UniProtKB/TrEMBL annotation:
Protein name, per record: Translesion DNA synthesis-associated protein ImuA
Lineage: Bacteria, Pseudomonadati, Pseudomonadota, Gammaproteobacteria, Alteromonadales
The organism of origin for this protein: Shewanella insulae
InterPro entries: ImuA_translesion, P-loop_NTPase
Length: 270
């Protein structure tokens, strides 16, 4: 038994053996900017390269906010001396990117590449060229559908160019199995509390977690080196917008208090 145990221990120490939720320490990820997401991804954040599918049930649930911290780290508005030059590419976004809003998030918009196409064939061709070139360490793309063959081809392009591609897809196609390292599904929260007990101090409310101003349900359907993770919640509202909404709600609450003292109450006599 001692010899068998020793052989088993040697086998378990092999780096090419997968052990459920046991991650290889040498495979470090990129910080997503969300500690809870980093913990569930298991490698400290986003993969360093590869095709990651993000399925979203509807627009405006924080799908772009999910990538903002990574964009800010890769192309900061105030670049440090000696920092590597590169681009962040937006391929076929559903809406025209708003430069002022991205700049307010600390992103250097001069290093953003916006690619718009007319057909899906042009989209996939442009996407493959950008990923293969290696000039854009992060690529965000929006697709209506993706076949197994197309996913495999884009994954190979990511590996060749050492690029990370976050591919946004509608939730209706998440049942398709694709050979990619990471698959995430986003859904709006079924219970959003936007401040049932808002205090006059915006700072105090912010310390309470912004009262869950925008909470998105996250399901990790597939992750390399581990089983799918249980559902968890992320608050994906950008910090400046969260502070603005908290201030507006605090003002509205103060206004409601002032108006409540001016309301005449019954009983009324005729």
């Amino acid at each position: 038994m001692a010899l068998a145990d020793l052989q088993l221990e040697r086998l378990l120490q092999r780096s090419d053996l997968w052990r459920g939720d046991a991650y290889h320490p040498e495979q470090e990820g990129q910080d997503s900017g969300y500690p809870e997401l980093n913990r569930h991804l298991g490698q400290g954040g986003w993969p360093s390269q590869g095709l990651c599918e993000i399925f979203y049930a509807c627009e405006g649930i924080g799908e772009l906010s999910l990538a903002l911290p990574l964009m800010r780290r890769l192309i900061p508005r105030q670049s440090r001396e000696g920092s590597p030059a590169g681009l962040v590419s937006l391929v076929a976004p559903p809406h025209v990117p708003y430069p002022q809003s991205l700049a307010m998030q600390g992103i250097d918009i001069s290093r953003l590449l916006w690619v718009d196409t007319q057909t899906s064939k042009e989209l996939l061709w442009a996407l493959e060229q950008i990923l293969t070139s290696g000039v854009s360490p992060l690529v965000l793309c929006w697709l209506e559908d993706l076949s197994v063959g197309q996913a495999r081809r884009l994954q190979l392009a990511c590996e060749k160019g050492e690029s990370l591609c976050l591919c946004y897809l509608p939730s209706k196609v998440k049942e398709q199995a694709h050979p990619v390292p990471l698959r995430i599904a986003l859904q709006p929260s079924t219970a959003i509390n936007i401040g049932t007990n808002i205090e006059a101090s915006t700072e105090a409310s912010t310390k309470k977690g912004n009262d869950r101003l925008l909470e998105t349900q996250v399901d990790i359907l597939k992750r390399r080196g581990g089983w799918p993770a249980p559902r968890f919640s992320l608050s994906l509202l950008p910090e400046l917008l969260a502070q603005s909404l908290m201030l507006d709600m605090a003002k509205q609450q103060e206004l409601d208090k002032q108006q409540s003292g001016q309301i005449l109450q019954g009983p009324w006599s005729v």
